[in-house]
Amino acid sequence: MNIYDVIHRRRDVRAEFTGAPIPGDALDRVLAAAHAAPSVGLSQPWDFVLVNDPAVRGAFHAHVQTERATFAATLEGDAAARFAGIKVEGILESSLSIVVTYDPERGGPAVLGRHAIADTGLYSVCLAIQNLWLAATAERLGVGWVSFYREPFLRRLLGIPETIRPVAWLCVGPVARHHDTPDLERHGWRRRRPLTEALHHDHW
Amino acid sequence: MNIYDVIHRRRDVRAEFTGAPIPGDALDRVLAAAHAAPSVGLSQPWDFVLVNDPAVRGAFHAHVQTERATFAATLEGDAAARFAGIKVEGILESSLSIVVTYDPERGGPAVLGRHAIADTGLYSVCLAIQNLWLAATAERLGVGWVSFYREPFLRRLLGIPETIRPVAWLCVGPVARHHDTPDLERHGWRRRRPLTEALHHDHW
């Protein structure tokens, strides 16, 4: 698939997972793509926890339900009504969950390019996530990033060391379809901004 | 270009910029790719400042030289010698610089998916940067991410408001080549880690 087709076809998937198995060679290509991302000082500070265990996914799903309610309680009127109709995760329906983490000590203590901006290590992990997302889209798999969770809960659930930060819980697997329009736009939550509004020349 | 070819061909470019102009249609496709990235709550919290002005680029380059010296002063022995031979930016030689920023207020106050993890907005900006990087690679352009700078300096230089955070200074333009091996590995700074060491199953 052409890279622009992939970039524009990619969606944050919640409701369309079929639960069918992911072909092993496709998963290998997707993980190798993530691992080929750029990273500050070539630190490659990411790890990937592949979560199949239904008990672990069930426990995470229950936690996310609680956090969904926490967010819902902050909304009023129209926003509350719109949010009530939006599915925010496919943890149980997707074929696999992949938790991506950040190790700030990897490649240290002197990480080339990180002395002035500590967050650049975290940025690297996100670049790996986008590689993963695009490769999965090219394999006709869906990806949904779940962020309705508390990091300490996820750390305890997976036995992640205190020094490592979980960055994302990704639901991955075959999907019935990729929608043309993002879920949140289809559900009236928010409309996409024109690119022209995001461009500046030489000065803000 | 096939997406896997792009992902594995992509490099962080410093020394290979030719300075030739970027075709306008290629730049349009690259920026549209960045803007098509996923974002928490569809907030699209990024902006892109296209910096052509030689005076602005010169001032930034001088600042980066100072920060390079700051980092160099933390190194000892072999590391100091290796770092001395590594070019860390192509600010003056590349055709265009693109500064990517993060607006935490975009789409607020209740950004869907951000109540539990404030950094998810910042993560979105990084996903846009990786889209930009891959699209540029497909256009046979090089990209180099410069992170040897202090955010307040860059904010003042470009007149970026206090509420907006600069995330990256990207050097972009035609290149003589994309090396097969990352610069930092070619220069003996650090070797890439095998993917197998980054994989965990069900539990850390």
Structure explained in plain terms:
The structure is a homodimer of 204-residue chains. Chain A is of the alpha+beta class and 204 residues long. The first copy, chain A, has one domain (3-176): 3-Layer(aba) Sandwich (NADH Oxidase). The first copy, chain A, contains 7 helices and 5 strands; from the N terminus they run H-H-E-H-H-E-H-E-H-E-H-E. Chain A has helices spanning 3-9, 24-35, 54-72, 77-84, 120-138, 151-158, 183-186; strands spanning 46-51, 96-102, 141-146, 165-174, 199-201. Chain A has a 4-stranded antiparallel β-sheet with strand order 1-2-4-3, with helices on both faces. The longest helix of chain A is centred in the N-terminal third of the chain and has 19 residues, at 54-72. The radius of gyration of chain A is 18 Å and the shape is globular. The model of chain A has no long low-confidence stretch (mean pLDDT 97). Chains A and B meet through helix 1, helix 2, strand 1, helix 3 and helix 5 of A and helix 1, helix 2, strand 1, helix 3 and helix 5 of B.
